[in-house]
Specification:
10 Kd Chaperonin, Protein Cpn10, Chain O, mainly beta, 37% strand, 100 residues
C-alpha cells in the first residue's frame, strides 16, 4: 500500500524550503503566552533543497545543507507561504546562519 505524502515542493537553484520550529507557548517561569506575544523562532528543519548555485562559468555547486538538517536563519529572511495545512518558509542558502 502506498504511503500518503504531502505536497511536493521543489525549490530552484540556491533556495531551500524549511518548516519553522514551533513558538514557545510558556516562559521559563511558567507564564502562558498568548499567540500575539509569541516570537517567531529563527530555527527550523529543512524540508527540500534546490539543485545548487550556478557559477559564472556555468558549473553547478551543490548546497551544503540537506533535507532534515536543523538550522538557524536570519530573522527577516525568506518568504512564508501556506501549502496544504502547513506554513513553510522559502529562503536562500546564504540566509542560513548555522546548522545545529
Amino acid at each position: 500500500m502506498a504511503k500518503k505524502s504531502g505536497p511536493k515542493i521543489v525549490p530552484i537553484g540556491d533556495r531551500v524550503v524549511l518548516k519553522r520550529a514551533d513558538a514557545e507557548s510558556t516562559t521559563a517561569g511558567g507564564i502562558v503566552l498568548p499567540d500575539s506575544a509569541q516570537d517567531k523562532p529563527q530555527r527550523g528543519s529543512i524540508v527540500a533543497v534546490g539543485d545548487g548555485h550556478r557559477r559564472d562559468d556555468g558549473t553547478k555547486v551543490p548546497l551544503t545543507v540537506k533535507e532534515g538538517d536543523k538550522v538557524i536563519f536570519s530573522s527577516y529572511a525568506g518568504d512564508e507561504f501556506p501549502l496544504g495545512d502547513e506554513t513553510y518558509l522559502l529562503l536562500r542558502e546564504s540566509d542560513i546562519l548555522a546548522v545545529i
